[in-house]
Here is the input.
Amino acid sequence: MKIYRAAVIGCSRMGAFIDHEVTDYKAIIPPYSHAGGFQTEERTDLVACADLRSDVMREFGKLYGIAKEHQYTDYREMLEKEQPEIVSVATQPEHRAKIVIDAANHGVKAIYAEKAMAASMEEAQAMVDAVEKNSVMFNLGTNRRWHPGFDSMKSIIDSGDLGKLKTLIIYSNGPLFNSASHNFDLVLRLNNDVAATWVSAHLPNGDNIISGEVVNEDPVGQGIIQFENEVTVHAMLSPRASEWEAICEKGSLTCWNNGWQWQLRRQADVPGWRRCLVPDTFPEFEGSSSTQNLIEDLVQALDTNATTRGGIRVAYASTELIFAFMESHLQNGKRINLPLVGSKLRLQRGRAPRQPKFTA
Ligand SMILES: NC(=O)c1ccc[n+]([C@@H]2O[C@H](COP(=O)([O-])OP(=O)(O)OC[C@H]3O[C@@H](n4cnc5c(N)ncnc54)[C@H](O)[C@@H]3O)[C@@H](O)[C@H]2O)c1
Here is the structure.
């Protein structure tokens, strides 16, 4: 059985240490970080790492057994010397595109890039071009696409048991790059990655955050997404965090508390009531690490030369929704047709990297 050589670029929280932040959080089944995923997955061998911060890599080396000579402050040197087959890019979105493009052009076979995909649409397009030109397998770290609970939710929708899917609700959309990147990917997945035709959005603090073409902070945003198959998404900014709902003609499916609770409600005739929704049983599913599932999906794609569950085009589609939300806000909530054309906006926060939690 082939073992793939893996390397992580961006060795901070999501790259390496985030598992230490969620030890008492049942919504996350470890491993959660990229390095943790590669270490646990038997088909990958974590061989090297790269980060601008040597102190962070020193701790990475201790935790994951990567000797100093395999730690690099220049990722291009790492690509050259280590020849990894799978590369993770767990930097912030402002530092993603160039690394992904360099890795793809260098000849890596698969890339696991964190969300949000890129800091501008121009960068996102350049990533699509490089990944496709080099036939690289690609998955964006939108974990719910690999979460077995959402797989169950999608199977029920796809079975038609509840009738046609009509409406998807994101109860708490949050900042567009950090959280909506997850939410937009989830609604795309639940709706079979059908193309969106338009969005209309409002960013409550958008006027203070967007200055010309520069987006200075990650803006929260609410709005509507219309899909080609007439499914509509309502992305709200309500206090009900980590809750999503799929409403079909004859019932609905709800996930709340970030995957802790799931509910199926079905239309039924109850004497004395009209169009009644009655709770039914949401199927049992076995929890597993979505990070590891994502990595296994890459491995499987490499083994068989098949496509991944995500892919660069799906990543581009969720990125387009982020930028279309901002463009709509700038035009007072006007409907923005997709594909999005001519967006020049760029996320540029100028922030320092986070301090990872080195121990649990
Ligand atoms: N999928 C999830 O559930 C999830 C959870 C947390 C974070 N994230 C995402 O992961 C990404 C990283 O988040 P974080 O909180 O770990 O970020 P962070 O700011 O803590 O770390 C980013 C790291 O990238 C490094 N870096 C920057 N430029 C580099 C370069 N050219 N070469 C090598 N290293 C470079 C920095 O030195 C830093 O250590 C973000 O996009 C974030 O949205 C995803």
Q: What stands out?
A: The longest helix spans residues 312-330.
